[in-house]
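Hey, can you fold this one?
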Amino acid sequence: MVTLAKEDNKRKTRVGRVVSDKMDKTVVVAVEFSRPHRLYKKRVRRISKFKAHDEQNTCHIGDVVRIEETRPLSKDKRWKVLDILSKGELV
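Sure. Predicted structure:
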């Protein structure tokens, strides 16, 4: 009998900065990336915003967090906060 080992975690993870925490149990995380322009080959910075589930409402604006892909939790939420890498400054 052959036993199958459990597959490694194939979910995507991203690191980004929290830009909004006004919703209950949800934060908006901005992930910045750069890629070369198709024609001119210069590096161009882009920002993608993801809504992520934050169960205990521990994240605040400016925090750097790691998010992981998950099942759809609402119309826009498909990510959850794994951990807070660094706390942001309070203004």
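The chain has a mean pLDDT of 91. Let me know if you want another pass with a different chain boundary.
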